[in-house]
Design goal:
The chain is of the alpha+beta class and 525 residues long. It has 23 helices and eleven strands. The structure holds protoporphyrin IX containing FE.
Length: 525
């Protein structure tokens, strides 16, 4: 999810702070901090806030986060010292609580899910996402239902199978052409997720260049909103987004995206009208080939007039799907493949499984996937160690709550450090080791019921795109290891593969994965 990224606050905070003369900035903040302090002193709490590190006036704990660009690591280290379950941080004007243990995650995402199931109202949600991602409301509930049932539920996802298979086959063909040469695998992988999402959303469009242009725009928005935006931390300073140029940048991107969406969705609408003229409503072939926009049109036609689904909503849901579904879903594939390269024994075992199960085939198709049990474990372990969204997405408490004897006031921002939780040594043996066998014959899964394994979050705000994303991840990885053997360039030792993380919209590899594909001879040609 590239959206409303909380997790990259730090990198972007640094960027933005350097563009504003610091002294002016400090004076402005001081003025507002005094105003705020006087209003805050009127409130009283009955229980203590969770413990936390010492705070500076005005910036609170921001300086303690700036010591590392990998904020999830920094938060884990701070939590170990100051609050292993719950830790209080003051970031700018806003009170934050960091959740770092499975026990505390259960309290937040299950016991008190209703209170903590809202999202903060961030500028990016209003300006880029047509408000579909904002706080919990009737509108959000309706959009969430659409996402789950209409677009991303398992039944609908099954209908996108031909798209997934053809995009993966296209990749295999391209890689075969480049046999023996180093290729930027990271780039290819994000192309597959972009391609699948584009075709699932819009089908085939007239302008052959539209896909590349639209995906470039999605990438632009992803980069722009990836961050701990300083203006989000000082909401009372309404002029900050304008002063830092953030508002102008978001508006520019939004207008460009909006124009393209109007164009592409307009084309879909025209096709639909033409189809209906020719076949009437009873066109079963068209129904079987419905894309995401068609489904949204159907829902619009049958929607309750008291809560109509508007063109604004349709654009919002479509754009959200791209922002949420491309970057975030690429990462599990990229990290899991990297781990297999770095651990040749795991790669060998996974390849033996798929090559045995699919012996003689040209391609691993979806009906073969259920046989690949070891690959399932490898993917789960990849998700455990490398969460795409290590801090999930930001939440906000709707009312005052008490957890483990601590007070969490209403309107507190909640950061759930899923990355730290997925590596909690109290729940995982050799927690930092890539060891897929730990998932063999084990009932733990990522569906949000095991709070020590939450790569997709849990509760009412859990990721609705699991089926959509994971169906591509597994098909893609199965084919990459079935159709090719892989070597590192310059005969580098696999164990030396650099796994440094880069904190952006999601946590990705700092250096793209460059590999040499060698087609597998046992494949049927
Ligand atoms: C396969 C890799 C993916 C991972 C690891 C992932 C992870 C996540 C996580 C951690 C969250 C936040 C959950 C929380 O706050 O509790 C989230 C939210 C979300 N994800 Fe995903 N996601 C993936 C793929 C997708 C795809 C493919 C889509 C859509 C096509 C999608 C759509 C969404 C949406 C719309 C939300 C926001 C839900 C809300 O606020 O109610 N995700 N995802």
């Amino acid at each position: 999810m590239a959206i409303l990224r909380l997790e990259n606050y730090v990198s972007s905070t640094q960027t933005q702070l350097s563009t504003v003369p610091l002294i002016t900035f400090a004076i402005i903040l001081l003025t507002f901090a005094i105003r705020r302090r006087s209003s805050r002193s009127k409130s009283s709490t009955t229980k203590p806030l969770p413990p936390g590190p010492w705070k500076l006036p005005i910036i609170g704990n921001l300086h303690q986060l700036m010591t590392s660009p990998l904020i999830h690591h920094r938060l884990r280290d701070l939590a170990q010292k100051h609050g292993p379950h719950l830790m209080h941080l003051q970031l700018g004007e806003l009170s934050h609580v960091v959740v770092s243990s499975p026990e505390a995650a259960r309290e937040v995402m299950k016991t008190h899910d209703l209170s903590f199931g809202s999202r903060p109202n961030l500028l990016v949600s209003d300006l880029v996402l047509y408000s579909v991602m904002g706080p919990t409301s009737d509108h959000w509930r309706q959009m969430r239902k659409i996402n789950f049932t209409g677009l991303l539920g398992p039944k609908r996802v099954a209908t996108y199978r031909p798209i997934r298979e053809s995009e993966v086959a296209k990749l295999v063909a391209e890689l075969s052409l480049r046999r023996g040469a180093a290729v930027d695998v990271s780039r290819f992988l994000s192309g597959v997720f972009g391609g699948v999402t584009f075709r699932a959303a819009f089908g085939i469009v007239k302008d052959v260049k539209a896909e590349a242009r639209f995906l470039e725009l999605v990438e632009g928005v992803t980069d722009a909103v990836a961050g701990f935006q300083i203006s989000n931390l000082y909401p009372s300073l309404k002029f900050l987004p304008t002063l830092t140029g953030f508002r102008a940048e978001l508006t520019r991107l939004h207008l460009a995206a909006d124009r393209m969406l109007e164009e592409i969705i307009g084309e879909q609408k025209a096709k639909r009208v033409a189809r209906r003229k020719e076949f009437g409503d009873d066109d079963s072939q068209a129904a079987a080939e419905e894309n995401l926009v068609d489904v949204l049109f159907n829902l619009q036609e049958s929607s309750d007039p008291a809560h109509p689904i508007t063109m604004h909503d349709i654009k919002g849901v479509v754009f959200e799907t791209f922002l949420a579904g491309t970057e975030t879903a690429t990462r599990p594939a990229e990290w899991t493949l990297s781990e297999m390269i770095k651990n040749p024994n795991v790669m060998q075992k996974a390849q033996e499984e798929v090559r045995q199960m699919c012996a003689g085939k040209e391609f691993v198709s979806e009906e073969d996937l259920h046989k690949l049990k070891y690959l399932d474990c490898v993917i789960q372990e990849g998700l455990r160690l490398h969460s795409s969204l290590p801090l999930l997405l930001p939440r906000e408490s709707r009312e005052r709550e008490e957890i483990f004897g601590y007070e969490i006031p209403a309107k507190t921002r909640i950061i759930i450090n899923g990355w730290a939780i997925n590596r909690d040594p109290r729940h995982w043996t050799d927690a930092d080791k890539f060891y897929p066998e730990r998932f063999l014959d084990c009932s733990i899964d990522y569906k949000g019921t095991n709070f020590h394994f939450i790569p997709f979050g849990a509760g009412r705000r859990m990721c609705p795109g699991i089926s959509f994303g994971m169906s591509v991840v597994k098909l893609l990885l199965a084919n990459l290891i079935y159709c090719f053997d892989w070597k590192l360039p310059n005969d580098a030792n696999p164990e030396d593969l650099d796994m440094t993380e880069y904190f952006s919209a999601s946590v990705r590899r700092k250096y793209n994965l460059s590999l040499i594909p060698i087609p597998y001879e046992g494949m049927k040609h």
